[in-house]
Amino acid sequence: MQAIVRGCVYHSHEMTYAGEFMTCGHCGHPITGERKTRQTKNGTREYVYYRCSRYTAAEHPRTRVPEAELDRQILELFGRMKIQDPEVVEWFRAVLRSQSKDAQEETLSQQGELKRQHTLLSTQQSRLVDMRIAEEIDQETFARKQTELRDRLASITLQLEVVDRSRSELADLAVKVFELSQTLSEKWLTADYATKRRILEIVCLNCRLDGVSLSPQMRKPFDVLAEGLLVPSSRGDRI
Fold this sequence. Notes:
Elements: H1 2-5, E1 22-24, E2 31-40, E3 43-52, E4 65-66, H2 67-81, H3 86-133, H4 139-181, H5 184-190, H6 193-203, E5 204-210, E6 213-218, H7 222-227
Parallel strand pairs: 1-5
Antiparallel strand pairs: 2-3, 3-4, 5-6
């Protein structure tokens, strides 16, 4: 997602909706793409169509959908996500920042507990060494306990690194996702195939083609934006 947010463009000739992005609503098999060239009075033109990979099976619908039609439906979907009211845009940003702050506070709490456990295990390690020096425990017991404490410390250290990294990244991620949702249409119109595919992967969990109609299952929070936000009750409306 970060590459999209930063506006990076990838170069590829991959078909946007192929590669098992969609399944057929009739039989559940993957949708595949095909390129057709036609001679027109203005020269050779290339057209891209999508159809089920079991298109030729007996009694299977012989439906082929032009890429332009799928693009139209995707742009319509992205258009539903865009919030036109600037006040509501700011309200939603504020909600996301508030949620990020709450999550950060929870992360700090987790970090504190992990640090406490780390200190406790380090103290136990030192005590174990002292006990071995004083010959209060034998070498076999010392080695077993030392390995156990070392493994637990390694696990706690790894968890601390993950929590610390997520704390530093969490603050802007939700806002960046929202900002992306508000510019998807513009990005789509200027994107190459690979970038379009990346956008689809960010926005959609999966997608089904029912006849000529796309039926995407959206990731959060894009599903909320596509269905319409419940805005603060003081406004008394819905987007």
